[in-house]
Every structure is written in structure tokens, then in C-alpha cells.
Here is the input.
Amino acid sequence: MRRPWMRLGRPRVPPTWEARAALPPFLWLTLFFLIPFVLVAKLSLSDVVLAIPPYAPKIDWSAGLAGLIAFVRGLDFEAYARMGHDGLYVAAYLSSLKFAAVSTLILLLVGYPLAYGMARCPPSVRQALLMAVILPFWTSFLIRVYAWIAILKPEGLLNAALAAIGLPAVNLLNTDGAVYLGLVYAYLPFMVLPLYAVLERQDASLLEAAGDLGCTPIQAFWRVTFPLSLPGVLAGSLLCFIPMVGEFVIPDLLGGSGTLMLGKTIWTEFFANRDWPTASAVAIVLLATLVLPIVLFQHQQTKMMETR
Here is the structure.
């Protein structure tokens, strides 16, 4: 007797619990990502008005199809055009990319040796080091950023320590250096954990084979260890770069009013200027920009899986 999933003599994969298990994540993404995204996109196409809320939708749902046609004909993308004409948004966009890119590079330079050392430690020590990396998550993110204010302020712990050893005081708070320091501190676990997961699974016999073939330890690292750890490098870089582009708390608290980033710009447009359409347009452009590296990473992962 032919099964329901048999067709033209060739078996077709029947419905499984694994396929059904993928349904809740899709529902979650639809409810908490797709629907809010559509609402923000609709808001970005609205007009600014002096009212509560401070925008007027351009589409009249009560008019039915005629209202939809009028909306399409009157589509002008005014908020998006304003972003191209106003240098503030371009400067904030480029500044956010700079902060995120430089911080990601610093995180890679700091996190890779840390993850490599953890992966080469005895198993009993690895667990303690892994717990030390995860431990900051047990404290509120906001409290940890405020702790850096107490450290970096002119009369803070850093200058007190410098004065104790006879060095002059430094002024780091409300500077770009403080923003970089806060970003690296806050996102270091997101770089270390993917790298550690990849490095810990590498076969040590590959390095022994490279040594038998005449490679020095440094050559074996660059020819064996580092190429095999590239998936962790890419995953950690994306996990850090993407949220740092839209970061708001760290630039606002550690960078002060002179720090220009998209997260602060969006907040200013929403709550200070009451220009919700422009703020929504900035958020849509930011999201569209960040989708590109995710798609490229997914494409790279798919190619790697096909070659195995």
C-alpha cells in the first residue's frame, strides 16, 4: 500500500517532529520581528504632525481600495529623502560603522588569544575560565556601564590609582576612548564564546601532523588553527558588530553629548524632536544595512556545509 507521502514511486520526507519544532521560532519571529518591522516601516511613511501621537498615516483604511491607491500614488519617501540631504544622519551612520568596526577588531585581537588559551587549558581549568567569561552576564548591563563611570570620572578609581603611583590624571570620560573601552568590555564575551567553541573542538593531532611535516608552531597556527577557526571568527564578529552599530546606552553614558551614533540619533528624533517618521526611517535603513552581513554569513556557512 502506497503511503500518503509516496509520489511517483519516490519517497518524500514525511512530516516529522523536527519540522514541527521549527514552527514556534517562526511564530516568534513573526510576532516580535516581522510585525513590529511592518509597523515601523508604515510609520516611516507617515507625516509629522503636532498631535499625540506626533504622526499622521498617509493611508486611509476607511476608504478601502481607493484609499490604498491614493496612498501608493502619493508615496514620496520624504523621511528617507531627508536622511540623504541632512549630513547629520550620514555622519551618524558613518560614525556608528567606525565605532563598531574598530571595536570589533579590538575584540578580535583581545578575544582570540583569550579563547585560544582557554581551549588549550586542562578541562578542569576550562570550566572555571568559562564561568569567569559568563559571570558579567549575572549583573545588569546598565549597572556595569555605570560602574565604568565611577572608574573613569576625573575623581574616579582610575585617577586615584594613577595618583597613588605618581602618574598624572587622565580624562577619559565623555570621550571616544571611553566609548571604545565600554564597547570592548560589554561585548567581549560575545567574541570569546564562539571562538572558544570552535577552538575547543579542534583536533590536536592536526598540529602534531603539521609539526611532523616541518611547520614551526607559528606556521602551524596560521596554516591549521586559524583557518579552521574562521567560522568562530565570523560568528563572533557578527555577534559584536551588529548590535554595536545601533548601541545607545554606552555612547550616551560614556561618550557624552559629543558622541554621534545612530542609536543616539534615533532616540533624539523620537523623544526630543518628536519626529517619529524620520526616526523610523533611520531605524529601517540601519536594519537593512545589518541584514547584508547576516545574509553573507549564512551564504558562507551554506557553502562550507556543502563542501563537507
